[in-house]
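ok new one. same drill as before - structure tokens go in, u give me an amino acid for every spot. 637 of them this time. try not to just spam alanines like last time pls lmao
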């Protein structure tokens, strides 16, 4: 494993220089010189008692050839020896930052390094300069030709500081305020990659928007990124949101502020709660109040009381039901009296569809209720006469009861399945099944059989596809026979839109399928005629590349490259990014060439960003397994 090779070569106790000199061309004796666009970096320091080959590898990181260690130099003791293993690993993770540019340069210093780096399938460096150059060129072209906000935020961590600054400049310079708000929304999603001055400019640009609809959209996005804002910036966002006059535009912005409650001061939270309660438009108010349920841990008892009172006072029954369901997420942070008020309000709703939604939200938190409160919720859910609403409520209750152990949810799930089976209208039945398949982990084998039977029996393919996607997501909880029936049902679908989406969902679950089933899934995806639907299926298969054989991977890659519609092709290539480490060199090159060959900016940027991310996810250096979200690519473009 590369990390072990690195650890053997680097003396962890030496002094690491603060400068990282460029690799001299005279050190590249055993390979091509590193790309000019990717200057090398490394560590300088004394490294005694190495073999000639190892010493040469490290010497390649200096500006001039090493003359070898002096006789006075001796290896320092391992100062990490007394540290716990977990601490050593943490230190190692930070010291050994496997930046592709560093590794590309390091691979030129000796055959040993080249073999270690080039032989690591999770570090496919050969095609990375091509992606970096394509991203650089695309960014320059788009930002200099009347940028309209169509570059994805995933580009931000890849861009160089200069291009990141240009990205911010171009976004702030957009004249149409609707376009600008969407561009700021995307830029805000990448706030963690912006400097403090850049964040300040983004906040000021959002606050300065005059159109209230656009302003609410941009500010709402910033609300979700409060963790990355300074105290002054948060104050500015809170002031601006509260100052929006049109309540229909204020709703989304308020919801964003609520999502960032954990990062607000006590005074800011109080202002947000006051502003939410003061909203007159019940739809906007209900949405924000429901979101406050998940933030109850950050509210005082008085604030919680006022929020509960505001929810109970909502007159629109549908809005009230959804807001009550939202409060369920905060049950653990309410006192017994507050819980009684919320439960009483939910049970008192007369409209059964609304009651079902409210009880489902409360039922999911059964572990936070006392025995009397649990009985009230269960009795109310089982007493609902409308079958679809009953299923919704009972599945939520069952999920909450499962946390209590002892199989206490079995009877509730049985009642929910019975209610689902009594529904004759296919659309309503599929909606009830959606609730059940979301809780597949709660079902026994016989209960799974009944749910699979009902799903496969639906004739309306739009409804059937939605339910089958839910079953696919819960594939780990199905038996082999049940999985086989689901796969056959997916492949047999005639509606290509529903089929493409469902096959795409199967991609991430392909590990649960046999080789023959995988063959059938690949055949079905490749065989879809409409390119936009085919792209959805093929993109999903990217997540399952590790579980396909070489022939299956080749078919998927060839099918993606063969797509003519550039928008569809960009989506499909972006999906393949998740499986780039599992492709061979030729396949990776074909995929990168296809992405760089796209002419339309938005799909090209989407594809390139995803491919870069897929190729810079590195091994966990302690286990040799791919890191789930560890990216070492750095800024290059």
């Amino acid at each position: 494993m590369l990390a072990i090779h690195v650890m053997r070569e680097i003396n962890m106790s030496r002094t690491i220089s603060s400068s990282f000199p460029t690799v001299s061309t005279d050190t590249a004796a055993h390979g091509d010189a590193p790309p000019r666009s990717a200057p090398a970096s490394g560590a300088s320091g004394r490294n005694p008692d190495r073999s000639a080959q190892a010493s040469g590898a490290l010497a390649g990181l200096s500006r001039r050839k090493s003359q070898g260690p002096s006789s006075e130099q001796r290896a320092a003791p391992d100062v990490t020896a007394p540290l716990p293993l977990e601490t050593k690993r943490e230190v190692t993770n930070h010291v050994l930052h496997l930046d592709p540019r560093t590794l590309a340069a390091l691979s030129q210093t000796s055959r040993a390094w080249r073999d270690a780096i080039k032989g690591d399938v999770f570090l496919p460096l050969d095609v990375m300069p091509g992606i970096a150059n394509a991203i650089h060129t695309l960014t320059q072209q788009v930002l200099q030709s009347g940028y309209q906000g169509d570059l994805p935020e995933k580009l931000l961590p890849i861009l160089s500081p200069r291009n990141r600054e240009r990205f911010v400049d171009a976004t702030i310079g957009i004249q149409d305020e609707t376009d600008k708000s969407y561009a700021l929304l995307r830029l805000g999603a990448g706030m963690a990659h912006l400097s403090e001055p850049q964040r300040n400019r983004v906040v000021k640009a959002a606050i300065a928007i005059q159109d209230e609809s656009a302003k609410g959209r941009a500010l709402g996005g910033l609300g979700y990124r409060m963790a990355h804002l300074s105290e002054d910036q948060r104050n500015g966002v809170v002031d601006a949101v509260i100052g929006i006059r049109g309540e229909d535009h204020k709703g989304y912005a308020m919801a964003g502020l609520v999502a960032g409650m954990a990062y607000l001061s006590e005074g800011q939270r109080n202002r947000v709660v006051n502003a939410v309660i003061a909203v007159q438009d019940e739809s906007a108010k209900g949405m924000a109040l429901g979101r406050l349920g998940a933030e109850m841990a950050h509210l005082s008892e008085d604030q919680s009381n006022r929020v509960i009172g505001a929810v109970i006072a909502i007159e629109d029954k549908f809005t009230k039901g959804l807001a009550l369901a939202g409060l369920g997420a905060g049950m653990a942070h309410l006192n017994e009296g507050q819980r009684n008020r919320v439960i009483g309000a939910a049970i008192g709703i007369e409209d059964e569809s609304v009651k079902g939604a409210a009880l489902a939200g409360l039922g999911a938190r059964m572990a936070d209720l006392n025995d009397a409160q649990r009985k009230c919720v269960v009795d109310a859910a089982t007493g609902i006469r409308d079958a679809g609403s009953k299923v919704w409520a009972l599945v939520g209750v069952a999920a909450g009861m499962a946390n209590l152990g002892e199989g206490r949810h079995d009877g509730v799930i049985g009642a929910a399945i019975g209610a689902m089976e009594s529904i004759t209208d296919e659309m309503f039945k599929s909606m009830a099944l959606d609730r059940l398949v979301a809780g597949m982990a709660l079902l026994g084998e016989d209960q799974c059989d009944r749910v699979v039977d009902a799903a496969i029996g639906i004739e309306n393919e739009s409804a059937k596809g939605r339910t089958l996607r839910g079953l696919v997501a819960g594939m780990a909880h199905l038996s082999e026979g049940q999985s086989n029936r689901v796969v056959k049902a997916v492949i047999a679908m005639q509606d290509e839109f529903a089929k493409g989406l469902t096959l795409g969902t199967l991609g991430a679950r392909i590990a649960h399928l046999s080789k023959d089933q995988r063959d059938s899934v690949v055949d079905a995806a490749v065989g879809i005629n409409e390119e936009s639907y085919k792209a959805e299926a093929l993109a999903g298969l990217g997540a399952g590349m590790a579980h396909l054989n070489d022939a299956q991977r080749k078919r998927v890659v060839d099918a993606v490259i063969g797509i003519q519609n550039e928008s569809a092709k960009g989506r499909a290539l972006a999906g393949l990014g998740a499986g780039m480490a599992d492709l061979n060199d030729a396949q990776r090159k074909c995929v990168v060439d296809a992405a760089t060959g796209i002419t339309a900016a938005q799909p090209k940027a989407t594809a390139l960003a995803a491919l870069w991310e897929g190729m810079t996810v590195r091994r966990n250096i302690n286990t040799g397994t791919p890191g789930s979200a560890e990216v070492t690519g750095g800024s290059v473009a």
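Residues 1-76, 91-98, 618-636 have pLDDT under 50 and may be disordered. and btw The longest strand covers residues 626-631.
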